[in-house]
Amino acid sequence: MGRLGASLVEDEEETQAQNKVAFGFLSSLLIYPATFFFLWALLYYTSLGAVLAALIVYLFASYHNKVIDGESFIERERPIR
Fold it and tell me: What is the mean pLDDT of the chain?
């Protein structure tokens, strides 16, 4: 999706970056709910299944954001000198 957004404007780097952010945000609005409902369906549409599916999607989104932001678990565990 980011490449599609960047290909709409070839000349300006700032516009390419803004389009990548916009397309990424819009695709996340589609992907996260679809993942939730897929996982909930795998868990037979139970109440506990809904909670587990929401928890899995939340954990995945948190992990994904940390990877994108460049945060590392190893760096946080390292003692301050």
Answer: 84
**Amino acid symbol at 69:** D
Q: pLDDT for 17-44, tens place per residue?
A: 888 888 889 999 999 999 999 999 999 9
What is the rounded CA–CA span in Å between residue 22 and residue 64? 17
Instruction: Output b/e per residue, 11-49; b: 16+ Cβ within 10 A.
Output: eeeeebeebbeebeeeeeeeeeeeebeebbeebeeeeee
> How many whole angstroms separate alpha carbon 36 and alpha carbon 49?
10
Task: Choose from 6-10, 36-40, 70-74 the range with maximum mean pLDDT.
Answer: 36-40
Q: CA 79, CA 21: separation in Å to the nearest integer?
A: 35
Q: Quick one: tokens of 46? A: 């139970």
Structural domains of the chain, count: 1
